[in-house]
Batch of 4 targets.
Target 1
Amino acid sequence: MNPRQACLACLEREPVALLEATLWLATEHDRSIDPAACLGQVHNLQREVSKRLPMLPLGELAQPLLRELNSQGFAQDEYHPLRPQAALMDKVLQRRRGQPLLLAIIALELAQRLSIPLEGVNFPGHFLLRVPGADHLLDPCGGRRLYPADCRELLARQYGPQMPLNAEHMRSATPRQMLQRLSRNLRQLHISNDNAMAALVDAERVMLLGPAQVNDYLSRANLYQQLECPQAERFDLEHALLLTDDPVQRLKLSERLAQLPSGKRSIH
């Protein structure tokens, strides 16, 4: 079983082995990673964290869990410009710095092992957590409580005041959605760091994990353009054209398609 197959197989387990899936995802980029050894680090972390949690009902331990992870050094990676290591689980476990989504996945893994109720929330721009039924969300980067006013402020910081908070932003995230979001994050980080081949690996995984969006096809088409694969680029541009409702974007896509060679060639 190759790393991609092992990653997807983790999603079929009961319960889903999400953190292990992220380790296999990282192994697609670095075959020297030993997922079993990384899971050993998580086991040691669980032991350290559990010793320091207060004696409270399980339903009240999510915030203390996040605070304890923060006291253990787990925090948002503030390096600018952000590098792919902020979204590769083996590096996050080693450095204790990463994107909010990676910190959330570590917290979800520990919560599952310790029977603490906790779920992911697919909030735009900054992944969040929630105790099921609670009236607030939790920031995986330290455990701060976020009420609706705080969520509006966070959204405004990410996208500007014109973007209203709505129910879609507060939906629980499935493991598959989290893995797809992580793949999109890595795709962008590899693009930003001028590694088109690594970005293509992530772009292809995005397509396997769930419904693809217009931007998913456009991102992969741009990578194929960089790699001089015009027929693969055409395939993605045509799919983006089918999905978009934006007339300006449709016009630009049509013009770009017209400029591509029509002859059939190998894409690799």
Target 2
Amino acid sequence: MPEWIIEEGIGETRAALVEVDDILEARVRREGVIPAGTILEAKLVAVAPRMTVEAGGEQFLLPRGAPGISEGGKLHVEVTREALGGSEPWKRGLARVTEEEPREAPALADAKPGTIVGWDDLLEEARSGIVDYDGGQLRIEPTAAMTMIDVDGWLVPDKLSQMAAWASANAIRRLDLGGATGIDFPSLEGKEARQEVGNILDMYLAKPFERTAMNGFGFVQVVRPKSRASLIDLAADRAAFEARALLRRASNEVGAIALHGHPAVLEAIRPDWLERLSRKVGGAVTLQGDAAIAMSGAYAQKA
């Protein structure tokens, strides 16, 4: 039976719904980013061009406004979507006005602590954007408008689309894709063939969601709630993504170690993270930058 497991890492907390060794669903909470569900005391710092508050060292947009509050006024807000960062670092978090008292965000999941088996494979899916399935391959890419899933494969179009619908639904859940996701299937002849793809999506997509019917060009748009960055979003902020992955691998070492990696990856490691890693491994941690090392190729070695 599937169960949630949570890992308290350095730089991030990870949660995964695991069945045997398969990750069905995953979530990440980054340190230094205020998560959705947090209630904070805030100050209204701008009314135009966008209503903006400052709280907890971050700025949040208020899409629903703040009736009766003047610029400089105090209020309480609940974070509804964390700052996404990644390829769009300007995209600030979203919040709404609330009368509730300040509190921390709920836990990522009702889970037991442990080590998530298969996490490295999931990270490879996120960084490459490639998901293989029986009969073809999905290519997932974030864009300014939405996350796009391109369907490719060698089956006949109707069978390929059916398999891809199942694979897309699972990938959306596993990679924590929220907001708008467009799926570009092969063009299908006939209403029944297009409806069958929709039926598969309806059966396997995690609720709640909304979707369009497949149009004549094979395009379907899925919209799900988005309260945090997906793994695809996180992978777009490549240096920080790889830095946290390196810290997870290095945490298994014992004694003094050296972290070898691309300079951009090593620069993304905060000093306090290094201090915590040093305490965890029980020895000094040094950094060895090498521009010849691929961003995903960073490694820890005994010093």
Target 3
Amino acid sequence: MSTGKSLRAGLVGLGSMGRHHARVLSGLEGVDLVGVVDPMGDKFGAAQGVPILNSVEELIALGVDYAVVACPTALHEPVGLSLAEAGVCALVEKPVADTVEGARRLVEAFESRSLVAGVGHIERCNPALMSLRARLEAGELGDVYQVVTRRQGPFPHRIADVGVVKDLATHDIDLTGWVTGRQYVSIAAHTVSKSGREHEDMVSAVGRLDDGTMVNHLVNWLSPLKERFTSVTGERGCFIADTLTADLTFHSNAAVTTEWEALRAFRGVSEGDMIRYAIPKREPLQVEHELFRDAVLGKPADICTLRQGMRTVEVAAAVLESANTDRSVSLQPEDLAAHGS
């Protein structure tokens, strides 16, 4: 990179995700990691010898161009607002905030100062989903009918402050809007809490996007089977992405004609070829950091904006509202394009 001068970056939080951020940041080309904030210290030695600080104010005083916010969700808003007020760009872990109002305040704080800010919706950088999105944009599926996601696995002990909707379903909400280029207009959901915690640990949701596409999400922390499944079904067949292995397969509708009159009258589909694509598999977190670095440098980079992150929090809030009231919740599509995102 020929910028002549490296960007100065900071990190807030050395939890399980923060430690991964520290690893990638410390080796990121064109970037110097200059300070890490964690009042608990660096008990895993993840900061690679970088100074450990007690407060965001100390980090700002070091003179950073941007900071990665990987502290607990409830702290995203106060930390983000401090960074925005100091004129520091920020990459905030998902979800961007734990409330819609908090997300709005963050959007306003960064947008009003024209600061680059993004949300760490890492699935956007998964090779299988990047390839799927490019193929949908190229029209390979024709009309899209349905998006189905399943995200299941055992309970992660690192999560204490939110339930499965805000922690996991936000991945599926964001990736669904991102790969289709569409927004949610309605959602209906049921949740259960079986693990003795105050938050929900399983959710089943059915939604609709603004072009009529049907959406199904099944997310839980109650399964010994780990699954990360996304399928998009449309006019020409079905794409299936496994984001654990970063594999993408395509099951095509066969163009086989039948002479049986009764069957021909039914406009169904028949089984066709199955293709498994060979795609380069780079680490999604590395890709996410490179994109954000480029965005800070003013280069074109497809990052998840704070406004898009806020939209995901709005849909997640609608999921919880639907589950609590036992009714379908409508959402107004927002003109994201008008806000440069």
Target 4
Amino acid sequence: MPHVQAGLVLNPQDWRELDPFILMAEDWFKRGTFSDHPHRGFQTITYVIDGRLEHIDNHGGHSILEAGDIQYMNAGSGARHAEEAVDQDIAHTLQLWLNLPGELKGTTTSYQNVYTEEAPVVAFEGGTLKVYSGETADVKGPLEPLVPFALSEIRLTEGAEFTYELPEGHNAFLYILSGDLIAGESEVNLKKSSAAILTFNDGGEGLSGLTLKANKRSRVLVYSGKPIKEEVVASGPFVMNSMEEIRQAYRDYQEGKFGVEAK
């Protein structure tokens, strides 16, 4: 089977707690797993951990992403694309589904790649901070999402400590790519492939500090987004605000309103 392994990092059943995030999946897959398929009503942020990922969409878009690259997709009113491993590679990715408010679910589909070398890097004692999206440490990431969203990658040497600043009104979570570290005031121990949701001040306008202390050399992704506070109805590849909107999305796809196959 082309889908070698799959795991849920964020479970869609917990969307109220995770708002604006719907789910995050970690996948290992071969070519043929994610061929042409539709989406509507949300955004994806795909981080390539290993292997090569080929993107094809039905508007003529094509790109190859490698380790440390990310792709942002606004599915908006209707995307049709394919995400494939290249040649005999096993692509290893994290894909986050980021909700859109109802007023933006009908927007035009768009894609943006951020290659690893394009994201600004800030050095500190014992490590580095790479900013893909949002603003922190006096730098701004190149990603331009439709809703307030931040993503950074932090690398720490053994024994290093760093405090990451993020908007206190954002819901946020960590994913540990490698290593072993202590996170936050509660000093939770996190190891490779684990995730943790942060507490936040709903409606807060200031900044909040997240302290990380590395027991071993570590890499961690920090995601944060502003809650949307709308009802979510998700079904298959669609995320809308009501079941009727979901049924309409299926009708539109079956009637060819998402365009031709991506290939």
